[in-house]
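Table S2 (text version). Query chain:
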Amino acid sequence: MNIAAVPDPANHERLLIIDFGSQVTQLIARRLRELNVYCEIHPFQNVTDAFLEEFAPKAVILSGGPASVVHDGSPRPPESVFTRGVPVLGICYGQQVMMEMLGGKVEGGKISGGGGTAEFGRAFVEPSGGGGLGLLDGWFTDGPEQVWMSHGDHVSRLAPGFEVYGVSPNAPYAITADLSRRFFAVQFHPEVHHTPRGAKLYENFVGLAGFTGDWTMGAYREQAIDAIRAQVGDKRVICALSGGVDSSVAAALLHEAVGDQLTCVFVDHGLLRLDEGVEVVEMFRDHMNLHVIHAEEQELFLGELDGVSDPETKRKIIGRLFIDVFQKYATRIGGAEFLAQGTLYPDVIESVSFSGGPSVTIKSHHNVGGLPEKMGMTLVEPLRELFKDEVRALGRELGLPDHFIARHPFPGPGLAIRCPGEITRAKLDILRQADAVYIDQIRKHGLYDEIWQAFVAILPVRTVGVMGDGRTYDFACALRAVTSVDGMTADYYPFSHEFLGETATRIINEVPGINRVTYDITSKPPGTIEWE
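Corresponding structure-token output:
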């Protein structure tokens, strides 16, 4: 199926990230995007000499990964990565593969069958050797730097031309470089927040590589509009509109590109928050003057979800029904040939590796993959390569008001994935009311804009309680609130006990059917933000 309407990256200075399977490779891309540097992640097996020649990167980063370079058949980049004359930065496994390929030596740790010492978690790196390494500008100004280590193997001998610039207790070559060839390598992960000044290393690296920072949302807007017009021509488009940030920005971008050729379909699947259906339709019709069809399909969705408890089955049912509904309304408006949706980069990463690499599927997204060829429409996904904060920036470029673009994310499957276990209409009604009270509390305390996402999940258990002089046997619920930048990682929000106590009291007093309230303090990873 054709997926286009994404700006041509050839218009930008490009940095290539070669992925060796690290779970945090996407965070490298986020750090670079924050620096207005266009980058792409490609799995090592797809990066050939011909690919490098065509992509023509201005610099290359070698990611971390779970493999051991001491094993036969371990992942390698092509030799030409090191002969193109561009700066290369190796991270963790990337450092080790760089040393191994350029004449150094890596010693296997106990995990890979060797006798070396592993290093996992926080560590402190101290400067070593000579100065003059531009990569470290702004580092070591207050003493040793905290970093995040995650390696079983380690470099035991540097490749010719390299010098050591930083050491940690279990990594004698924590920071190394060959200045003449502009090759840099670190054993730790600068991309994670446990390396507090890691972003500075990326800033220094792209500066040394000569990037001017030409990746801006202003430029992206103009190029995306041109790409949409080139793809769509004079044909009609329907846009899957949920009222969330992603679909709102996608709709605004499409409307600017093709005007009246666009019809938005807002599917009310019975899994929305309190009064959300009416609010979304009024918001888009009144503020943006878009043609919006309010598809009231509550009975269709809730009928098929009745009795379903498996989370993947829920998502797949919702995804299938979404497509069926879009097909129906596309026919009604005269045979639209294009379906637009607000798919983001993290959606694609979690559903399947962005470019065919080895990453593991975490959960299916209702709007990614599995779209039947019989659908008869071509996808338009102009936000497919953006992270959430970039989408918000694009929304501001398009002139959307803050209450549009500052809304917390809301998943396409809606309350279905905040209702673990069997879905019933009664449980959904309880959940809507509890969620409304919770969000009202957050707004009253002035916390809404500090939180990335907040919601209530109704748990598939009943608990005994006492209200007045009577016994209750009602549902328990869990409050969830997280802070994040891009949704790839998240920490729970540190509410005060006073806030939690006040909120629990309100929910129990105001929402019939709930007699117990808990607060979820799981980070991502190991959990996901949503419960299902």
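Notes on Table S2: The CA atoms of residues 165 and 315 lie 50 Å apart. Confidence is low (pLDDT under 50) at residues 352-372.
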